[in-house]
Amino acid sequence: MSAMKKSKLVGFSTVKRSGLGFLGQVRSGVQKGSFGSEWKVLIVLKHLEHITSVGPRPVGSVENEVLTVNYLLQQVELVQAESAAGPHAVTVDVQRPTGSFSIDFLGGFTSYYDRVTNIAVKLEPKTGAQHFMLANCHFDSVANSPGASDDAVSCAVMLEVLRSMANLSTPLTHGVIFLFNGAEENVLQASHGFITQHPWAKQVRAFVNLEAAGVGGKEVVFQTGPENPWLVQAYVHAAKHPFASVVGQEVFQSGIIPSDTDFRIYRDFGNIPGIDLAFIENGFIYHTKYDTPDRIHTDSIQRAGGRYVRDLAYAACVALLSWFITLLFVLIVALLVTLMGRSMFWYSHFYTSVCLYGSAAVGKMLLIHTLAKNLYYGNVRRLDLGELFFDVSLLLWCCVLVYLTQQGLCSAYVPMLMVAFPLGIKLLLSSHFKHKGASVSYAVLYLLGLALPYVHLMFLIWVVFEIFTPIMGRSGTEIPPDVVLASLVTLAAILLSSFFMHFIYLARSTKRVLAALGAGFVVMLILVSCGLFFPYSADPTSPRPKRVIIQHTVRTFHDLDGSVERMDSGLWINSFDYTGMSHVTPHIPEINDTIRTRCPDDLPFCGFPWFLPVKFLVKKNWYMPAPTVSPKSPLEFTLVSKQVTEWGAVKLGFEAKGPSHMSLYLLPHAGASLSGWSFGDGTPQFDLNGEYFIFYSHGLDAPTWKFWLEIQVGMISVAISSHYFFGEDRWSPQLHSLLEKFPDWAFTSSWVSTYNMYRY
């Protein structure tokens, strides 16, 4: 056995012991390298454009021997300068070998070459390396083709992988030789010159050959070996989507296909194992004038560099970030409107909320994606970005589908529609999109394909707004309705824009759309701030009333001994929306902030006759002093029993007789607790911040309401209110007088009530 073969066998053993060997190192370099902002397809495309811009590059031409060589050397020098401070050394050598060999190809012949060109770049730790992997591409082309796929794109990928690995912060275990050979189309001459004559060839232990027999699709492993199955294992581990077939290898090596690659030279003349990778899709334009950069499939480049998954993740982050920033911006606008006192301007004119918040949401999303397109994805082809962000939309909807399905929610059918139809449209229009781009016909077909899921989605959005918009008029004084509605409008804009997001990246410019949206937003904000849109309407065909509740109430507070501590009466006014009385005060000046109430902590339910326990929703109310009202059927409330139980609790028995609707409020004071009662299963339920609320109503001829409470140590305040909703007790002159002052767009609910509080 020759010394050279012994050396290589030792090298194979070393590579095996190192884990996945050189292919694993290339994978590591691609995935973990410092790529500046990122390893982008745009950089590869830039290299590809430069290499092919000179036209066909046959061996011996100025385009091949001078222009392309100079560009490659210039890029390698940039890598050397960029990585000088790192742990790696980058050495470049321009080889111009002369030689000859015989080859069993096309019937067999002898080939002679004289001063063909190789650019060999050695990447190794600064401490040196004994074993190297060889990565091979060729930059020459046939005389009648610009050779974008065969094989300029592989050289472009290798340039960027070189830059990535050179800038790794951790030194490689073994070295890599990047060979840009300039005479492959002359039947594999330059590779022969390198492997048989170059001094670095003796240290090569394995190789990867990048070739093309088409312009894209999956890169196929169509040759590997000889033997050394660890190479295939390393490829499977390194590739994102490995694709290989032993059938392809045997067909190719049978000679049926009239082509050959540098793999044969390294295998037969270098006696080293390797892997032959090539793009095979659309071989119709192989070695023709149509082999141009614009026909290269970007996803093929991404798979070759192993970055598409990361690019998809980054693009998804851009989308999610745009949604977050958009929501934040629209919420700020909603808070600004609220602080200006223009809340609910949309209540009678829903379209105004779409004009203001919708234009803000769409405009902000459009602006963020435009900035990402121009600043982050500066030189990436628009078609590639369009396809990437379409995939982002598909991915995010898939995530929603998976989540809802896992939760067992039937509404998962909605994201299912938003996945199935766009995916089908993409498959049907993929060829049309790649060849004609975002043409008018593409847009029309695309919109037709999305019609069904989008019509259904818009219907669901309409249902949501149909439900929630009226609710905002009765949701209390504490929840800013503009914040809620602005959030819903933003969510609707996000959902509806999801599969139109990629059009931003397909468009040549978004300036006009941004200008229109910006102008519409500014104009709308000015109109809203001027108070042009009044929230309420008394139009009988489409009323939008303001809800106000007024009770003429008499309040009586008793001390521990049962004596009356104080007593008052007045008109208690509650607004059931966020605007409070701000729109009513100009019509009824006496209802103003000077008569706003406060909530004493020691009185059950603030000392007012709440019909339902909604005081946490309606914290702004007004109490206007008024003469006492005396219902003809007054409330009768009596403590009928008080006893101490054997376990030390105090049991209080009560009787109450009054109108058909009464409310009972219980407030145990510090140190006391309500341990039992006669309601339900006997266990007190629904402690509302230390208080309890019991709602009571009766029909005709109902007996006296009897109940008991059990108190564990301490004092409790018990209050009961009566509500007169009908009959002659419902009205009072003062109540009637106030109601007449309200504008016609206000809908008032009014009745007489009483509130009595006792301490035990």
Automatic annotation (TrEMBL):
Its cofactor is Zn(2+). Residues 118-305 form the Peptidase M28 domain. One of its GO terms (biological process) is proteolysis. Keywords: Endoplasmic reticulum, Glycoprotein, Hydrolase, Membrane, Metal-binding, Metalloprotease, Protease, Transmembrane, Transmembrane helix, Zinc. The keyword Protein transport does not apply. One of its GO terms (cellular component) is endoplasmic reticulum membrane. The chain crosses the membrane at residues 312-340, 346-367, 388-406, 412-429, 441-465, 485-506, 513-536. Residues 308-528 form the Endoplasmic reticulum metallopeptidase 1/1-A TM domain. It is a multi-pass membrane protein. Residues 543-758 form the Endoplasmic reticulum metallopeptidase 1-like C-terminal domain. One of its GO terms (molecular function) is metal ion binding. Belongs to the peptidase M28 family. This is Endoplasmic reticulum metallopeptidase 1. It comes from Astyanax mexicanus.
